[in-house]
Amino acid sequence: MRSGTSPATAYDDRPYTRGGTVDRTDVGALVRSAVDGDTAAWKALVDGLSPLVWSVVRAHRLSDADGHEVYQTVWFRFAQHLGRIREPHKAGSWLASTARNECLKVIKGLKRLTPTDDPQLLDRASEDRTPEQSVLDSEEAAAQSERVRFLWQEFEELGERCRQLLRVLIASPPPSYQEVSAALGIAVGSIGPMRQRCLRRLRARLDARGAL
Amino acid sequence: MDETGRTNGANGDGQDDVFGEAPFLDEELDHDRLEEELREATAVLDPVPAELRRLAIEAYALHDLDARIAELTFDSLVDAIPVRGAVDVPRMLTFHSGELTVDVEVTGEGLLGQLLPPRPAAIEVLHGPRATAVLTADDMGRFSCDAPPTGPFALRLRTGGEVVVTEWLRA
Question: CB distance from B10 to chain A under 8 Å?
Answer without folding.
Answer: no
